[in-house]
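quick one: alpha-L-sorbopyranose bound model?
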Amino acid sequence: MKRIRTAILGTGFMGRVHLEALRRVEGVEVVAIVGRELASAQSLGAGFGVERSEADYRNVLSDASIDAVHICTPNALHYPMAKDALLAGKHVLCEKPLSTSVETAAEIVRLAAERNLRNCVCQNLRFYPMVQQMRRMREDGDLGRILIVQGNYLQDWLLDETAWNWRIDSKAAGQSRTMGDVGTHWFDMAEHVTGLRVSSLCADLQIFYPTRTRPTTKVETFTAKAVTASGEKVVVDTEDFGSVLFHMDGGARGAMMASQMAAGRKNQLKMEIYGTKASVSWDQERPDELWVGHPDSANHLYIKDPTLLKEQAKSYADLPCGHSEGYDDVFKQIFRRFYASIRDQGSPVEYPQMSDGLRQLVLMDAELKSHRSRRWVDVENP
Ligand code: SOE
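yep, here:
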C-alpha cells in the first residue's frame, strides 16, 4: 500500500490529538509538523518520530511529496491556511469551525471543488458508533417522523474567571466562541442524524464575565483552570453561553443550549430525538450507551456491541462489546475515511466536507443575527 504523506499544522490540543489518531490509520505517514514556535513542533514531533519540523507552513505546502495537510490552528488561521493548501494542490482536513465567516468558508468550498481536492471539516463526533446507530435507526424508519430534537453541549473548563484560552479572543476565534466551538458540533450532529435541516431559529447568547485576564504565558485548551490571575485584563466579546430554539424541515421543533461554564459537565454533548414511533438519547460522556424510548413497550439501554448494531453502523466500531470506543477513536474513524477517499478517488465520501463546515457558519451567522436583533431568523438552506 503506497503510504500517503501528510503534515499537521498546529501543535496545540488538536494538533496532538490528530497526530496520535493518524498513527492508527493504515497507510498514512505524518512527515512534518508545523508550529508557530519551531520548538513546539520539534518537541511534539520528537516524541512520535516525525523528523521534520517547520515554523512556516508554506514550506510544507511547497513540498510536492506531501499529499495532504491537517489544519489544527486557531479558527482565524483556518481560511488562509486552507486556501493556500488547496492552491498548492493539497487535500485538506480542517478542524471546525471551518472559518470565521460565511464568505471565507464559501470561498474555500469553491476552491476545493474547482481543484477536485478531497476536503474534510473535522465534525468528528458524528463517528461514535452509537451516533451512527441513531442515524441508521432514523434512516430505517425506526423512529418514525421526527417531532422533537433537543439537547446540549456543556463543559466547565472556562468556568473560572481567571480561565483563558485563545477561543475567548474574537480575533483568534471569530465572533462566536461557545456556539462556534461546540454549538457547531451539536447542530452538525442534529442535522446529520435526523436528516433534517434547521429552517429558522431564535438565539440568545450571554457573556457571564465581561472581562477576563489574558495570561502572559501560553495556555493549552482544557488546562485553563490552572491559570493564575496574573496578566492583562481584557474585555470579552465572545459568548460564554448560547441557547437556541429552532424549527426543522417537516414541522419538527427543537431546543439546545451550550456553555463552557456548566459546573460538573466535562464534555457533555447530549442529543435526544423524539419521533412518532420511538426516541433515542445519547450522551458523549457515556458514549457506548444508547437509550431507546418506546411508547408501548419497555425502553432499552444499549451498550455498544457491534453484533447488535445496524449493518451500516458496524464499520464505526472496531472493538467488540465491553471494549469502549471514545473520543480518540472517532478521529481514527473520520481520518480512515478521509484517506481512503484520497487513495481511491472513485470511492464514496463518507465524512463531513467543507460544505458541511460552511453549513455550520451559516447557522452561526443566523444565531448571531437573531441574538442581536432579538427575533426569529430564517436560515437559507442550500
Ligand atoms: C473545546 O471546547 C474542545 O476542544 C472543542 O474545540 C473540540 O472541538 C471538542 O471536541 C472538545 O472540546
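The chain has two domains: 4-124, 128-323+360-373.
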